């Protein structure tokens, strides 16, 4: 585990702990379940795992409302289970990133209970409190990220002030201008670093700083669904200079813990230059490129997103690529089954660090969750349903009643059904990951686009004599792509196409290929 730069050439895999594996039959996934299934990640060929929050949480936002940052939710296990998970992951050569949720806590966190208890409490200033506007009502026009919530403010009747919350009212925002808050969060980072974690995924890294004067956002944004997606206007509660300063502080804490510890930010921004600022030296190692994630499934649009980010990155900056997570509809449901196979080739051959979301390696689709079983305040249950390990009622996830439906088991979308099937989505992922691991050009090589017919995205990845051509069909049309003499097909997303010498290349519908070129 000596490689301090593992995060550049490695591949990460996101686990949503409540939905991965349930060891005790209560229907909710837990840490022991994850530990028992780490072999799947090692077999798949990833390098590290990011665990969404497993801390004590009332569950309003399923772990993203943390009531104790340095413990494990009893529903999910104990600190000893966390230690065992870390030890087993490291034994298998897997790094572990835990989720750091620094923007807000649960309203049940002892810090907030103290803070709201009285205006004179020593922790009052740990959260964002403000008097009502002069005529009454919320202090400014900021809105929550969850459209159903509305204003980002809730009145605390007992003390007569509003508190700010970027998400639900049960997730009050911490006041990052308060030095005690900064010290407390440093302590959280150190706690997990001391236990051996290899880094953190930082929740809403773009939200940490807020203008101190709590001024209104530009009125043009008043009706916007999500401030974060406005392309140009400066927003007073997002992407602030102070927020960047806080992240650089986190960076000093992880650097002090030794090499190989990594910060991966969830910075939801629209412009590549904004993303690039998070990757300046001394700030984050990695930050998700959401412009890539949300690009329409179109050859030109995906290429434009990739290249805009690459062009904006500071020296040493490195892309982080994902096509789904617990907040976004599943790839198969957004793009289609054949397209999802091509998407896997794209994700695992581009320049940058790919992050897979559990179940995508099987082609899991969104599962319809009937209203009476819905859990999430923002409608994200369909993409958070339990991992499918085997056919049958509990999908091998639980022996009890799963907390979210496991979906229809008849379609072969489970690990057991796919493991021995060379045509499966799982087999495709294993082959892609093995190929990436064995191919320096794919892990760390340069990127250069090559001319291709409409609807095809093609690029070269090169590392010295190691030269790889990737060609991806984004449409149902077939297309001829030029290949030099001596090309060898290494892999196709089409299970019916065998590898070998490739004198000419006609891409089939929605086909993606990886080709070795002569050096
Ligand atoms: C981003 C997380 O990914 C999402 O699931 C959560 O609801 C919000 N941050 C609030 O923590």
The portion of residues forming beta strands comes to: 15-25%
CATH topology of the largest domain: TIM Barrel
Categorize the overall geometry.
globular
> What's the N-to-C terminus distance?
32 Å
E-strand count: 19
Each distinct ligand: 1-deoxynojirimycin
Identify the CATH homologous superfamily of the largest domain: Glycosidases
Question: Architecture of the largest domain in CATH?
Answer: Alpha-Beta Barrel
- Strand order in the largest sheet: 9-8-7-3-2-1-11-10
Tally of individual domains:
3
Fraction of residues in helix? 25-40%
- Average pLDDT, rounded to a whole number, is 95
Catalogue the unreliable spans.
none
Question: According to CATH, what is the class of the largest domain?
Answer: Alpha Beta
- Main sheet record: 8 strands, parallel
Structural class computed from helices and strand pairing = alpha/beta
| Continuous helix count | 15
Can you tell me about this structure?
The chain is α/β, with parallel strands linked by helices and 519 residues long. The chain has three domains: 6-104 and 179-433, Glycosidases (TIM Barrel, Alpha-Beta Barrel); 110-164, Oligo-1,6-glucosidase, Domain 2 (Oligo-1,6-glucosidase, domain 2); 446-516, Golgi alpha-mannosidase II (Immunoglobulin-like), CATH 2.60.40.1180. The chain has helices at 6-9, 31-36, 38-44, 79-91, 110-117, 179-195, 241-256, 272-278, 290-293, 299-312, 331-335, 337-349, 415-419, 425-438, 440-444, and strands at residues 12-15, 48-51, 95-100, 129-130, 153-156, 161-164, 199-202, 262-265, 286-287, 320-322, 353-357, 446-449, 456-463, 466-473, 479-481, 488-492, 500-501, 505-507, 512-516. The strands form four sheets. Strands 9-8-7-3-2-1-11-10 form an eight-stranded parallel β-sheet. It has a six-stranded antiparallel β-sheet with strand order 12-13-14-19-16-17. Strands 4-6-5 form a three-stranded antiparallel β-sheet, with no helix packed on it. Helix 4 (79-91) links the parallel strand 2 and strand 3. Helix 6 (179-195) runs parallel beside helix 7, helix 8 (272-278) packs across helix 10 (299-312) and helix 12 (337-349) packs parallel to helix 14. The two termini are 32 Å apart. Bound molecules: 1-deoxynojirimycin. 1-deoxynojirimycin binds at residues 61, 64, 101, 167, 203-204, 266, 326-327.
